[in-house]
Specification:
Radius of gyration: 22 Å
CATH class of the largest domain: Alpha Beta
CATH superfamily of the largest domain: NAD(P)-binding Rossmann-like Domain
Oligomer: single chain
Structural class: alpha/beta
Number of strands: 8
Bound molecules: NADP nicotinamide-adenine-dinucleotide phosphate
Shape: elongated
Distance between the termini: 34 Å
Order of helices and strands: EHEHEHEHEHEEHEHHHHHH
Strand content: 5-15%
Length: 264
């Protein structure tokens, strides 16, 4: 049984994905949100059991997911887990910025904890969630569940902030690139629709090409760039721009902001 404490946006996305992927059956999911309206919505939409009264659900759970926000009352969530859950249940926290040490203070020492930064591409099956395990937790306890809403990368906890600013924020950089690239097509004279279709096909195809060929991007650029031709002229302008450093500064800013938010 999987029990979710907090039934907000991220938890809903996870439930939708694990049901769609048939990782678990709807009878194996329980949710406890603080809002009865939210519980009713989740019950009606996904036919899972959702109730503010969670003693029974906590007793039965093999996996307990803490899905509340960092500023919510984690201490009272911890008290409920301590009081009612089985000692061998694994606690999966998706709460950004809260370390496993802090979590252990709330839920008790010697408990299996997985700190997870879920990806936001849950409906697609793509995207890595970053997972750090404490010494009481094992991959076997969580692997199947976590793979139900994307791919899983196990990392040391010290890398979680980097994982968040680089990996989980990853789609943002790609969305921004796609938007800028489509705008370039419109600027050059294509219709918005034409530019959009070409950009999407190019992005998907380029990723596929990298995977299929196993080549480094620079090798593929060499193949595409003939002497004095279109490609090398375009590349020259990009090299003169702040493109690479701008993107890299943006990632570092996101990583630093993740750390700052965790300290607030
Ligand atoms: N959204 C994302 O893309 C994303 C990505 C990675 C990680 N996360 C993490 O996921 C967590 C949830 O984020 P979210 O975007 O899903 O937030 P959210 O939609 O606000 O969900 C939190 C839910 O928990 C409820 N809640 C608060 N205190 C509770 C308690 N003591 N017991 C039971 N339910 C309680 C809230 O109810 P009320 O609104 O009535 O207070 C709300 O429905 C956060 O810690 C965030 O850092 C989110």
């Amino acid at each position: 049984m999987i029990h979710f404490i907090g039934g907000g946006q991220m938890v809903e996305a996870i439930i939708r994905a694990i049901l769609a992927n048939e990782t678990v059956n709807k009878d194996e999911i329980t949710v406890a949100d603080i809002s009865e309206q939210r519980n009713t919505y989740l019950m009606e939409t996904y036919q899972v059991k959702a109730s503010g009264e969670q003693m029974e659900a906590l007793k039965k759970a093999d996996i307990i997911v803490i899905g509340v926000r960092p500023q919510d009352d984690l201490a009272s969530v911890g008290v409920q887990i301590r009081e009612y859950s089985r000692k061998d249940a694994v606690v999966v926290s998706i709460v950004a910025g809260v370390t496993m040490e802090k979590l252990a203070n709330f839920i008790g020492e010697e408990r299996a904890i997985a700190r997870v930064i879920p990806n936001t591409l849950t409906d697609t099956g793509y995207g890595y969630s970053g997972v750090a395990l404490n010494s009481y937790a094992s991959k076997e306890q969580v692997d199947e569940f976590l793979n139900g809403f994307g791919k899983v990368m196990y990392v040391e906890e010290r890398l979680i902030d980097i994982f968040t600013g680089f990996g989980v924020a990853g789609p943002n950089y790609v969305y921004y690139f796609i938007e800028s690239f489509a705008d370039a097509g419109v600027l050059a004279g294509l219709s918005r629709e034409q530019a959009w279709n070409i950009v999407l096909e190019n992005v998907v195809g380029s990723v596929e090409m990298l995977k299929l060929s196993g080549k480094h991007p620079r090798q593929l650029l060499d193949i595409n760039n003939s002497a004095g031709g279109v490609g090398i002229n375009a590349l020259h302008e990009l090299n003169r721009s702040d493109f690479a450093a701008g993107l890299q500064r943006s990632v570092l800013k996101a990583v630093n902001r993740t750390t700052e938010l965790g300290q607030e």
